[in-house]
Each structure stands twice: as structure tokens, then as C-alpha cells.
Amino acid sequence: MKNILSVEKIEKYYGNKGNITKALDNISLKVYEGEFVGIMGPSGSGKTTLLNCISTIDNVTAGKIIINDSDITRLKSKALDKFRQNELGFIFQDFNLLDTLTAYENIALALTIKEEKTSEIDKKVKEVAKYLEIEEILGKYPYQMSGGQKQRVASARAIVTNPSLVLADEPTGALDSKSSRLLLERFESLNKELNATILMVTHDAFTASYAHKILFIKDGKIFTELVRGKDSRKEFFNRIIEVITLIGGDDSNVF
User: Which pLDDT value is given to residue 27?
Assistant: First the structure.
């Protein structure tokens, strides 16, 4: 199984000499091709900082992060921009869709930036829209869509370039329970059928129960790892709740 992500002994400090906060403390982890991995932890545990460093939004203070054989901690601005375009897909809690563009145009934007042919862009957008069941809203603007539709458009935008790694930051945080379930079922399909490699930060046990493996972070360190194995989703959910209770989590949605 191919190693997609290697995080090697990373540390992240904020502040100055008089007031230094250690947000990440010697964290190492690996994510392999086709895995669906969740990251959980209490508020202030470092889970969002970790995702920000992996997504190149933030820089590490020490250690290195290797994605698909590229050490992103060594890449400079232009090379980093190109790397993001080719290797990473992003799904955010607040969707981050451009209000002046239709769903079709929002999804196509990443391909347009890569200067792909118009015919190829059209083919790829329609394929991913069909897969995520958003064909009927391709001509709509974000203000005309429900939260669930916006997040599926955002998901389509994230995977249309066929990235090595999809990074999701609280993807169900702004959705109601029905929309959350529909989105997570699509995530499962993306993972199983398209072999998408997904790394997802969430505070929500129900959302996390869709993953194959959960890394729990506390005080900037990996506290423990939970592997779903042959558990049903409900059994995995109950095990997740047990760990959240142990370390002190933010939320424990009912199944």
C-alpha cells in the first residue's frame, strides 16, 4: 500500500520569547493510499493546527511533512502553489464557494487554473457532478442552494482534479443531521469506489464513525489511535465515545 502522507516529528510554536505556546509536540503519523482517517481531540488540542500544517496553510517549526514523496516543508511559494493545485483537495466547514460563480463554474475553477482543455473540463465536471448527485444544480449560484448542496459542490471541487489527498475540516459542522448523513455517505463512496484518500478533522463522533481510523490528539500530542476494523459503524461510534469521554471531548452526538 502506497504511503501518501508522512508526518515526521513535527512541532509548532506560536508567540514570542516571552510567551510561547507549543501547539504541536513531536507528532508523527502516516496515511496510506485509500485510507479514510479522522482526527479528533478537545478544543485547543492542536487538531486544526495539524491540519493547517498538512494543508500548507501554516508552516511547521520543526520536523517535516511528506505528501506523495514531496517534502512540503521545503517548497517555496510558486512550487507550493503548484503542489496544492495538483496534489491537494480542500473541503471546509463554511464551503468557501465563490458567490458570483455557478456550481459548475466553482467546480471547474481548479481545472481552469491548471489550464486544462475546455472539453476535458466539461467532461470532468459532469462526471463528478453525476457521482455526487448534483447535476440538477450545476447552473445555480450558492445563494440558491441548501447547505448540503453547497457542501457537495465543495466536495466536487475538491476531488475533480483527482488529488493525492483530500483534506476536510469539520465538513459537517454547518449541516443539519440529514445533510450530514448524505454527505458522509458520499465520502464513504468516494473512499471505497474512487479510492480517495481522506484526512478529516472533526469534533463530532457521528461524523468520525464513518472513518476507518481515528487519531486522537491531546495537548499537541497523539493520545491514542482507534482502528475500526470489522466493527459496525455503531460499534465504532461507541468506542469513539469512550475515548472522547476519557480525554474530554467537545461533542458526542447520538447515533
Answer: 96
